Amino acid sequence: MTRRIGILLPLLFITTAGCTSVSAGQPRPGASESPSPDEQTSTSVSAPPARPRDIRLDDVDPCTLLPQADFAGYGLDKPGERSSDDNGASTCAWYGDLGAMDANLVTHEGVEAREGRLLQIGPADPIDGFPAYTGTLPGDDMVCFIAVDVADGQYLDVQVRLYSLPAGVDSVCDYAHQFASSIMSTLVKR
Q1: Which N-terminal residues, if any, form the signal peptide (predicted)?
Q2: 173 and 144 in contact (C-beta within 8 Å)?
Q3: DSSP H/E element including 46
């Protein structure tokens, strides 16, 4: 519950920052009013799905998570390169003809920590039943982040940077979601 409140409070602040008056209570549409599109979006954020179980990311090699059978579909012909970020998160980067794809196994903070950073965060379709969130950079439509909430204080952070969209792909975030799904297909088997 605390994890969900941590995600929802910053979103509530962001969506209400433009209001010009203050009143006590929670605004709700009247019986005859329909919710606005913004209210419908916030409704889906306010009730994120629960994780089906916890998947701990400690001591997992992220370069083992992308099935080799999926390499060609992402324009990859060699294994990823393992490293770690400044906070110790294990990272794997794959470079191919279409761009670069990273899988970061964040074990030092929960997915709610993504809020308030440079990204514009929104809900995404769950992956294998796990809550997922899309992050985009303002003004850059060729980069997308997918964060998948896999355990308390841990999440899979997928980053995709494309040179151009592959045929049949509508957006870089669709592609990033597919890539995160490939990674998760291995994680859920653990």
Answers
A1: 1-24
A2: yes
A3: helix 37-46
| Rounded-to-integer distance, Cα 89 and Cα 103, Å | 10
Q: In which residue ranges of the chain is CATH 3.40.1000 found?
A: 62-187
Edge-to-edge strands of the sheet including 81-84? 81-84, 90-95, 99-106, 154-162, 140-151, 130-137, 120-127
**Residue type at position 55:** I
CATH architecture of the domain 62-187 equals 3-Layer(aba) Sandwich (3.40)
Sign of the C-alpha dihedral, residues 15, 21, 27, 31?
negative
Strands 81-84 vs 90-95: parallel, antiparallel or unpaired: antiparallel
pLDDT of residue 120: 84
pTM for the full model? Answer: 0.74
User: Which of the residue ranges 15-29, 89-103, 110-124 has the most confident prediction, judged by mean pLDDT?
Assistant: 89-103
**In sequence order, what are the beta bridge partners of 160?**
101, 144
Encoded tokens for 93: 């980067």
